[in-house]
């Protein structure tokens, strides 16, 4: 009743406030996407992107919500923050000080978050400077310069503007996570992708009207899209349930335990993190190189172009790495086995303690392999569709995985708030009745 009653969400004041707060900040983000960086010839930049928006720049532009093609104040998007998060998580495994911080609870988490913010600013400065220098050497297909007044004044202004824009997006994401509903960073990426959808649909109709795309192909693509979305939802909610039995124990005059339950292990434990991390790492060096006219840099850009064999192999390898890495960071079989043993729980046929931890780790490793294959298969969809069927937008892949995954996660959080509110009201009523009886 509660799980399906999403139509009643605005009847709960706290939940209504959180949802409206989230929508308000997402609107602020979309307004910022329209604000251009000073010193740019918008017409020349638009004509340049009309020719160069496919491949890597098109993918980067998708993640920035269209901010890159306008070179708005949010042109760098949230990717510097994600890159900084990746670096900090990798360093947490290798640096003892960071490892200790990660185990200190809320205080340690705040310290690591602070380091991530510093790293975001540093990466934004590097990327902003690279983009500024690259823009000065770029021209539109007609030969018009993109930068009106090149020089150190423009470079400094661009670095400050783009770094401030990324810092503001980072703040928006943190505010949504703390005071809104859902994960703020994921929702910002979600909003950027979804807002590009109407333009992609209009472009599809344009291709149909001009005969560049056949109606049969468009209908087949629509059916295929629905099937892929259904498949993603099915896998994202899939679980491997390990049976757990709790022994009976006597506390005072009461007997506790004895019930059977299960330990749910998701097929895709890491969610949308692996493709986001992999895309961020692939974009960072290639974005800098794409704005520099050195020959060997251009070779890097050509190799790291979506659809290229080298790019796809590296992308899949990174997805596999981050699927296992993020699963290992977020799920510790030893801790789970120890907690289970302390509470009198055991897996039938498996001895408690180390044997249980090894069994959980073995099962988790196997299902993570399946999850990594599934994520990789979905993420290479755009290259196939663009090259074989002339799809005019990045359908599938990281974008679709993020949209569906974030939607499922946000709806789950909304349902959790509704469930908590329901129980709160029930307990208040119960308390009132008990007071009357006393």
Features of this protein?
438 residues; Preprotein translocase SecY subunit; 2 domains; globular; disordered C terminus
What does this entry look like structurally?
It is a single chain. This protein is mainly alpha-helical. It has two domains: 13-195, SecY subunit domain (Preprotein translocase SecY subunit, Orthogonal Bundle); 214-395, Preprotein translocase SecY subunit (Orthogonal Bundle), CATH 1.10.3370. 70% of the residues lie in helices and 5% in strands. The protein is built from 18 helices and five strands. The strands form two sheets. A three-stranded antiparallel beta sheet has the order 4-1-5. A hairpin with a 2-residue loop joins strand 2 and strand 3. Helix 5 (79-94) crosses helix 7 and helix 15 (333-342) packs across helix 16. It is globular and about 85 Å long.
